[in-house]
Amino acid sequence: MLNKRDLEISMNETSARSTGQGDEDDDKDNGDEPKEGAVEVGTRRPRGRPPGSKNKPKPPIFVTRDSPNALRSHVMEVAGGTDVAESIAQFARRRQRGVCVLSGSGSVANVTLRQPAAPGAVMALHGRFEILSLTGAFLPGPAPPGSTGLTVYLAGGQGQVVGGSVVGSLVAAGPVMVIAATFSNATYERLPLEDDDEAGSAGTGSIARYYRKFAPCYWK
């Protein structure tokens, strides 16, 4: 049987335990609420462009469509035993493009040339020669006289150099490499221009361009 003093001590301990548990529960509840002076971090994304985005360089724009009037570069390999001039002329006819021969390298044989020193003299060369220079032009359709053909300079086995306009065969003795550029829509012009020609060209338009390109012999 508890006396009065023991009963008071027991009641005080029970009250203290209840008070401590209540303080812990209050601390837990208050932990979910923002404390005074705390800064709340927002999760919203900022509006507008990032700083400096307007000054960033834009990627270049490339036009991939090829223009029909653009020059195209070609590396042509002419097989041994084939006529170099005839092969290039056939390429121009089949592709319907003009060919401008820039250079060539390789060996040729059985060459027929017209030398510039003697316009009427045609010289046939037999044997093997190395190409030093090869230039010329070919058009796909009817062309004015003298606008197509090749000019070649060759070196012989003894070191002699000979050259001229190719008027006959130019047979490749081995693989001959030709560097060329092709073009289309070439316009034939007769120089010097006269006032009547300029007025006629402006008046006839496409008809004049047609005759100048495909039938220059009828254009006067």
Task: Please explain how this structure is put together.
It comes from Camellia sinensis. GO terms for molecular function: DNA-binding transcription factor activity; minor groove of adenine-thymine-rich DNA binding. The chain is of the alpha+beta class and about 220 residues long. Among the domains are: about 70-185, Hypothetical protein, similar to alpha- acetolactate decarboxylase, domain 2 (60s Ribosomal Protein L30, Chain: A); about 190-220, no CATH class. Helix content is about 25%, strand content about 30%. A hairpin with a 7-residue loop joins β3 and β4 (about 120-140). Residues about 200-205 have low confidence and may be disordered.
CATH architecture of the domain at 72-186: 2-Layer Sandwich
**Basic shape:** elongated
Distance between the termini: 147 Å
Rg, Cα atoms, Å: 46 Å
User: What is the structural class?
Assistant: alpha+beta
Sheet having the most strands: 7 strands, antiparallel
The DSSP helix count reads 4
CATH-defined topology of the domain at 72-186: 60s Ribosomal Protein L30, Chain: A
* Number of E-type strands: 7
Element-level helix/strand string:
HEHEEEEEEHH
Which range does the strand content fall in?
Answer: 25-35%
CATH class of the domain at 72-186: Alpha Beta
Main location: nucleus
Region (Disordered): 1-69
GO cellular component, one term: nucleus
Function: Transcription factor that specifically binds AT-rich DNA sequences related to the nuclear matrix attachment regions (MARs).
